[in-house]
Amino acid sequence: MGENKNDIFSNLLFSCACEKYRSDEQILPEHFLAIHLSGETHMQITGKNLVFKEGSIILVRKNQLFRAVKIPGSNGEYKAVAIFLNEDVLRKYASLHRIPEQERYIGESTIIIKKNPFIQGYFKSLLPYEDSTIKKTHSLSDIKINEAIELLLQYNPDFKKFLFDFSKLHKIDIEKFMLQNYKSNVPIEQFAKLTGRSLASFKRDFKKTFGQSPRQWLQGQRLTEAHRLITKENQKPTDIYLDLGFENLSHFYFSFKQKYGVTPTELK
Question: pTM for this one?
């Protein structure tokens, strides 16, 4: 059995898996706060590899590339609960409490929350909603988000810089970003958005920076890394093609042979 997701509100997610589960690449649309109740998550997030184990509580910033491998714990179960901090609710909270919009946030995008009885208790309060027949309403969802915001600010008042920066994505260093994220299997349009550019501007700046189109460069980088992993680190093609951004094994083999004249297995 693979992953089973049970959406309680649009902003609250229970995630369960009884076997190892690998998620697709996605972009986080909102900040989220999550706890791992059993098992662990191996997460690739905007160029970083992180591991979160049972009991971990994390706060993750929106507009990041995200992929996860979810591994069941010793009890055979993986379970996590996440609440997404909707921007509309954050804006209303800031207005009600007279919190000015913050300057552009430049701190850590993934923060580990140390054990805190109030935040742990908050997540316990969410568990009954998993199976409860109580009517789920937008107002109830907003109440739970506001509670999470309040607890986070009590835990660390500086989190207002993280939570209440509503500025739009701005142009960032395209070379640095792409070298960190070339393995991510997302459309070119998403790369453009995450670097703060229109598609046309992204393609123009990309050509100036790398001398190639995005698709040509991405495939070249992925294949070069595949060659290195196979020849230098003795990794199996079947173990690496998804992590390098290839959608299927046959496409990986075809592209590899086009570049190197042999298939990945023949190379070894």
Answer: 0.81
